[in-house]
Amino acid sequence: MNVMIAEDDYHVAGIHEKFLKQLQDIHVIAKAQTASETIQLVDQHQPDLVLLDVYLPDQLGVDVVEQLYEVAPHVQIILITAATEKEIFTEALHLGVIDYLIKPIAFERLKEAIEKAQVQSNQLRQSPRITQALADSFFLRVKDNSDKEDELPKGIDRLTLEKVRHLLQVQQDGITAEALGKQFGASRTTSRRYLEYLISIDEAKAELEYGIVGRPERKYWKL
């Protein structure tokens, strides 16, 4: 994922960049210090994601979000701010930013926001059509995190669960636990634990598939 940082304080921008370099498959391709420079560089580089500060010297970051969408229709935006005013937060919601981070930012919170952006980007790129399950993964994300996070059983990590949901979503012919585990770097046992959990909450199903030789395989599909 190609990421751009829009932050007028070069020291803070450097901290953001240092955080991002610790994340896998994340590349910082540009940095801007003003709103006008942000629009220009987003148009030029077409990043997947922009970390956008609210208080830029020439214009509020939140006021250029629509212009960024115009020059880069598929860009995702995470708003980063010291602002705690409800009006700015409400406007950010209306504009469709994918996350809202208040300074000072904890690394784990930034990591979570970046991973959410990655998951959403991959889902849209790989899904041939919008299903209700895909829409729910976007619009019910806040509700799911707040209402269900504490209900996850031991051994089930929320971010890993999101990856498993996404990988299962794109399997048209079903997939075994072992094959799915290879896709997200986990053992067959770990993969099956997540798949069986999805079955328990009515988000997946499994059937035995009999081959020509050997034992039948348990294949999983997303409901």
Automatic annotation (TrEMBL):
Matching entries from SUPFAM superfamilies are given as:
CheY-like (SSF52172)
Keyword set includes DNA-binding:
yes
Tell me one Pfam family matched here. HTH_64
Q: Under which name does UniProt file this protein?
A: Response regulator
Keyword Chaperone on this protein? no
PANTHER family the record matches: TRANSCRIPTIONAL REGULATORY PROTEIN CITT, TRANSCRIPTIONAL REGULATORY PROTEIN DPIA
Q: Could you name the domain of life of the organism this protein comes from? A: Bacteria
What species does this protein belong to?
Answer: Shouchella miscanthi
* Record's keyword terms, sorted: Activator, Cytoplasm, DNA-binding, Phosphoprotein, Transcription, Transcription regulation, Two-component regulatory system
The regions listed as transmembrane in this protein's record are: none
**Boundaries of every Response regulatory domain copy:** 2-118
Where in or outside the cell it occurs: the entry states: Cytoplasm
Which residues does the record list as 4-aspartylphosphate (modified residue)? Answer: D53
Looking up Gene3D superfamilies in the UniProt record yields: 3.40.50.2300
